[in-house]
Amino acid sequence: MLAAPINPSDLNRIEGVYPVRPPLPGAVAGYEGLGQVHALGPAVDSLSVGDWVIPSPPSFGTWQTYIVKPATAWHRVRADVPPYYPATITINPLTALRMLRDFVNLTPGDSLVQNGATSIVGQCVIQLAKLHGLHTINIIRDRPGSEEAKDKLKQLGADQVFTESQIDIKNIKTLLGALPEPTLGLNCVGGNVASVILKILRQGGTMVTYGGMSKKPVTVSTSSFIFKDLSLKGFWLQKWMSSDKAEESRKMIDYLLDLVRKGELKYEMELTPFSDFRLALDKALGKHGSQPKQVLMF
Ligand SMILES: NC(=O)c1ccc[n+]([C@@H]2O[C@H](COP(=O)([O-])OP(=O)(O)OC[C@H]3O[C@@H](n4cnc5c(N)ncnc54)[C@H](OP(=O)(O)O)[C@@H]3O)[C@@H](O)[C@H]2O)c1
Fold first, then answer.
1. pLDDT of 92-145, one tens digit each?
2. How is the chain split into domains, by residue range?
3. Whose C-alpha lies nearest to ligand 1, atom 33?
4. CATH superfamily placement of domain 3-90+239-297
5. How far apart are CA 49 and CA 37, in angstroms?
6. Looking at ligand 1, which atom is closest to the CA of residue 123?
C-alpha cells in the first residue's frame, strides 16, 4: 500500500459501533487506499507489476503494507495524480456525487443546503455542484479557525457559508439573498443543525442524512411534515455499492480522478508517515482540535 486515509467510518468500525464489523481475530482496519502491484499470480494478465490500484469496491485492511487479493478486487488507476487522491477518491467524493444525482432532479440554477461543509464530502459537494451550475448554501460549526474555513470553502466555489451561530432561522429569506430556496439538503451532522436544514429547505424538499458527526439524533418538527411536506431519506455508500454497482462505481471513480487531473476537484488533506499513525489517529479523533483529513503514507 502507498497511502490510506483515516475516515470517520474507520474509527466507528474500530469502536464497534458500525453496522458492519470486520471478522475477528486478525482484522486490519482501513477501508480505502492506494496500492502498487508488487507481485502477480501466474494466471493474472489484467494487471502489471508497478500498476497503481485501489480496492474497488472498497474493503477492509488497507492500513497495512502488503495485501493479497484476487486481481478482480482491484481497479487500476493512472499514476499521474498525487497518490493521496486515488487513496481517498472512493468513499467521500463518490458519496458526494451519488447524493447529488440520486435523490432530487436538480437543474442548473437550483440550490442545495448542507451542514458539515468542511468535511471531504462537503468540499466535494461544493465543487461538483458548481460544475453542474448548482448553488450551495453551506453551514459549518463554530470553532477556532471557522472564518478561515469559510474563506477556503468560498474559494472552492461555495455561494454562501455560515457558521451555525450566524443562521437566523426567522430570517431565512434574507439569509438566502438572491438564491432560490433549496430543494435538497445534505445532513452530515445531525442534532440542531439538521433541524436548521429542514427550516431552510423549500416546500416539498428532501433532506438526505449520510453522517452523524455530532452523535445527536435528527429531530423533526411535526410542521415539517404537515405544512412543508418534506421528505427525509438516508444514503449509505456501502449499500449502494453492494447492489451490483461495481462497474458503474469504477467509471465514476475514473470521472472523479479526471476532475482531479483537470484541477476541478481538490480537497484538504494532511499526510502523515505510517510510523506516526498514533498522532494521525489522535488528530482524526479530534484530540488536536479541528484538523484536515489524515492520510497515512506507507
Ligand atoms: N453514508 C455514507 O455512505 C457515507 C460515506 C462517506 C462519508 N460518510 C460520513 O460523512 C461524514 C463526513 O465524512 P468525511 O470523511 O468527509 O469527514 P472529514 O473530512 O473527516 O471531516 C469531518 C467533519 O465532521 C465535522 N465534525 C467533526 N466533529 C464534529 C462534531 N462533534 N460536531 C459537528 N461536526 C463535527 C468536521 O468539522 P470541522 O471542520 O469543524 O472540524 C468536519 O466537517 C462522516 O460522518 C462519515 O461517516 C458517510
1. 999 999 999 999 999 999 999 999 999 999 999 999 999 999 999 999 999 999
2. 3-90+239-297, 104-234
3. 214
4. Medium-chain alcohol dehydrogenases, catalytic domain (3.90.180.10)
5. 5
6. 16
